[in-house]
Amino acid sequence: NEYRRMLPKTEIAPPAIGEMSDLAVPGPAGPMRLRQYAPAHAERGGAAILFIHGGGCVIGDIESHDVFCRTLCHDTAATVFSLDYRLAPEHEFPAAVEDSVAAVEWLSFEARGLGLDQDRIAIAGDSAGGGLAAVALHETKGRLAAPVRAQVLIYPALDLRGRLPSRKDLADHFLLPQDMIQWFFGHYFGRAWPIADPRAMPSLYEDYTGLPPALIVTAGHDPLRDEGAEYAQTLAAAEVPVDYECCEGTIHGFMNMGRVLRKAHGHTRWRLATWLRQRLHGR
């Protein structure tokens, strides 16, 4: 699609990693595809990251975020698993949520069999994938083989109500104007938007205690900026360790634009890697 054709013009050259392979794992509607990225010097009992891609639950896939996942694998020395969840409009809400939950559970319980450490797993996602990651952590809390070690939410989509200032003040801003947000929501949620369902809006959950430490990154010129900031405050109020950073002067999706937004991409790439290494490797 057009989104995927655009990415080679904006992304960095992918760094070298060890091995890549596609896996078929059990899902709520049949087998799901996970792409596994192993670091060049993979260690027995190493750390793992489950990545959930963005695209409004309508576009995007494993291929669109391949460079991002290779970079994450290279920079963190962790094995990265990228989820190919079901997309709308063919599969409306809560299909993407159900697949994300199933992937978190699968990785937690299968980690040891894959030669990985079930105690050193992180969940990450960008945009809609950040929202799915947040929801999956709520839905699986207390149900996993071991608690998730860390969560990384990159300009996450967390609140479909559009009530916060950035959604109004930046309604016409590139890359994600209000009419495009509505287009994504219309395809994913259908005609009856689930405005009372926390699986659609993790800001509606009642209990945030016990969630893993979080790194939340937003963009200064992103309509979704304020919902990421608000979620950071909500986690902190529940005594969840939170690091929050707003990358001023940049836009939604900038982590797929390293070739043209070098400063923002380079700084955030270093920030993600350093933060995840500290939590997954203790350094």
Topology, element by element:
Elements: H1 2-10, E1 19-25, E2 32-38, E3 46-52, H2 66-76, E4 79-84, H3 95-110, E5 116-126, H4 128-139, E6 150-154, H5 165-169, H6 178-189, E7 214-219, H7 225-237, E8 242-247, H8 262-280
Parallel strand pairs: 3-4, 3-5, 5-6, 6-7, 7-8
Antiparallel strand pairs: 1-2, 2-4
Main features:
283 residues; alpha/beta; eight-stranded mixed sheet; 8 helices; globular
Overall description:
With 283 residues, the chain is of the alpha/beta class. The chain is built from eight helices and eight strands; from the N terminus they run αβββαβαβαβααβαβα. It has helices at residues 2-10, 66-76, 95-110, 128-139, 165-169, 178-189, 225-237, 262-280; strands spanning 19-25, 32-38, 46-52, 79-84, 116-126, 150-154, 214-219, 242-247. The chain has an eight-stranded mixed sheet, sandwiched between helices. The longest helix is centred in the C-terminal third of the chain and has 19 residues, at 262-280. It is globular, with a radius of gyration of 17 Å. The termini are far apart.
Structural class: alpha/beta
**What composes the largest sheet?**
8 strands, mixed
Written as H for each helix and E for each strand, in order along the chain, the element string is HEEEHEHEHEHHEHEH
Overall body shape? globular
Strand order of the largest sheet: 1-2-4-3-5-6-7-8
What's the pLDDT, averaged over the residues? 95
Oligomeric state of the chains?
single chain
The tally of beta strands, per DSSP, is 8
Helix content: 25-40%
Radius of gyration, in angstroms, nearest whole number: 17 Å
**Beginning-to-end CA distance, first to last residue:** 40 Å
Measured by DSSP, the beta-strand proportion falls in 15-25%
Low-confidence stretches: none
How large is the count of helical segments?
Answer: 8
